[in-house]
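Lecture notes, unit on protein representations.

Consider one protein chain, 454 amino acids long.
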Amino acid sequence: MINLFEANETNKMITEENLDVRTITLGISLLDCVTDDLVKLNQNIYEKITDLAKNLVSTGKQIEREFGIPIVNKRISVTPIALVGGRACRRPEDYVTIARTLDRAAREVDVNFIGGYSALVHKGFASGDEEFLKSIPEALSITERVCGSVNIGSTKTGINMDAVALMGAIIKKTAEKTADDNCIGAAKLVVFCNAPEDNPFMAGAFHGAGEPDCVINVGVSGPGVVQSALKKIPDGNLTDVAETVKRTAFKITRVGNLVAREAAKRLGVPFGIVDLSLAPTPAVGDSVAHILEEMGLERCGAHGTTAALALLNDAVKKGGVMASSHVGGLSGAFIPVTEDAGMIEAAECGCLTIEKLEAMTAVCSVGLDMIAIPGRTSAETIAAIIADEAAIGMINSKTTAVRLVPAIGKDVGDKLDFGGLLGGGPVMKVNSYSSERFIGRGGRIPAPIQSLKN
């Protein structure tokens, strides 16, 4: 339990330093909903989600009131729909009916997002997978709360370059279909390498096949708390910085662990994991970039940024694992450009580029996240960016991801504004030289030698 001193300290972190539980996410398996009757499948999915999640939001609000801990989002993740719909769906349009059902269920239980409109194609396409992928632009354009993801590679399997090429085109088409709404569809779509099965954060959350039938996962965030702690040691060396971050991450994770246990107990489901990722927002005082600048960088993106981020990510993980035996998900530091006030500033002044962000993803929690790129960027270039990022994940045995937003009708220097947690930011420059022939080869990039560990 948290003692009185910790309670007072936690209260200060909440009221003065933007500490919050970013999400409680109820993971739900839909494997027992499978049938070859599409109407019955949709009925099964709707009934199971609305039954198991009917008390999720009210429970979250109850915990907020009793403990005084803000819980920003209540969400649901489900089994990848490509696994669930394969028997009943023959066309992309069939899968879109499931997206509508997910959206309707999410509205019924009042969660802000439902994740799992997803596919796992890292070693190839199973029956129905290509039809599912082709359904994504329509599915994400006609729904409000549905999020999707596709895992196209892993350290064990290599990278499915046919899927990478297809996703380049799908991302662009998704942006085009939502061009009148700031291309929001692409902001709800993530392409992964080494996707975790228990990630509570959107847009990449899905409920893995190895998970229980129903489980609570919590994502906790506190960039402002970490930055505030570092302000107190202006003359400390980098060892002092690492120790301070580690101790702070311990405290943050304790809060998440408490909320997760309470939510699981009250909902009568297992406690899965706490994801202690430092997830920023556009709000002042809630930025990962500003943490790096507090370490001594003039601006995020300057030389030394990758080293500083490596220190931060490692210290966060070390502190978190001492606070909870249920740490999982992504856990580290997110660097979503449009969602981080400091990242936005650094991108606007030209200090932070996509190339530097790619280097940073080798040591951070996830990958190239929430980056607006020119709307004229070709599908092949988008696919090549995905391939580069997947290669970093594959070789380094870590999760990497790409969430790019082609800003249709906009070019470098223009701005895209989503509002809310998704924020907004400048359209960033993309290398103009062609990757078309490379992407056109298709096939599979083989798994690296370090995958042979048995």
